[in-house]
Amino acid sequence: MCKITVPVIRRRTQPWISNECLQLVDERKQAKLVDFNRYRQLNQELRRRMKMEREAYWNRVAGELEEAAGRSDYRMLYRTTRRLSGKAKTTDDNLRKADGTFVRSTAERLQRWKEFLSELCDHESPQGPPLELLSIQTPRNAFLVGEPNIDEIKKAVRSLKNGKTPGSDSISAKAIKAGGEVLLRRLQSLISLVWQSEVILATWERALVVPIHKKGDSRECKNYRGISLLSIVGKVFMKIIQARHQEHREQTSREEQAGFCPGRGCCDQIFVARQLMEERVRRGKQTVIAFIDFESAFDCVHWPTLWKSLEVEHVPWKIVRLLQATHNGSSSSVRIKNILFARETLSLRNSSTL
């Protein structure tokens, strides 16, 4: 009676198994009891069909991966790779407390995350004498402090990536792009108002932090990385500031600087380091290379020193004041299993365009 009322749904153990194969399995099972020759024929047919469907499935998956890589759709590429790897998703259900014991309830889990984030963000200011920075003379540029024009806004909107999770305002990049010229004009008016008043909207200041397991033991909070979900509209504003600051920064960057420079990256530095080592080995000389890895660097920014460095580099005060405005009122809400708890933070949001 239960099977008639609620039929049992057959679960496919492999993704390439079709309904036709399942039907052949049933026929083979029935033939085994009454006709052995028929059973052997169905068994051969089933093996042939399974082999064909398995090859077709993997050819289709390989084609999808190749197409995704060709159009630089890394979201699709990584998602398919994770699905094929069959790795189970990690959870924070068994977090370890500071004393080594494990959490037993949702309240304890939230409390543990609060403690960890407090330790991570509430760092002490650096001790010692004030940092003396060498003043860098750069020419002034009136364009850097003027209100953003419509071309800058269009360029910033076009650079937004689709598929990114929006922040607290739930406005996606795809929705902004679909707004057309009308929305761009409204967005220009809003950004101009913020530019003049130097007052940042509350939704732009608020970040939604989601801890994502990065490596190692999933029971340790230190092995998680906090991803900040920011307002997409706020990112348009920050992209404009970034583009203007980048124009100013290119005039002061040294030739050796490769990080955060257009057209340069880690591969260039690896090539240079390899060339140097090969040449020194050829000449019989030793080479010493130092590598420094800053753990949780985004969470340990000393803001007074950052403002001082921008001042020394003669970054226009309009840009500095706008950056200070985005920081002074910043706050975050941490989401743990769809439960939010708020805390003030002084960290540099790692999802920010800056």
From TrEMBL:
Q: Where is the Reverse transcriptase domain?
A: 212-323
Which CDD domains does the record match to this protein?
Answer: RT_nLTR_like
Q: Name one Pfam family in it.
A: RVT_1
* Superkingdom of this protein's organism: Eukaryota
Q: What is the protein's given name?
A: Reverse transcriptase domain-containing protein
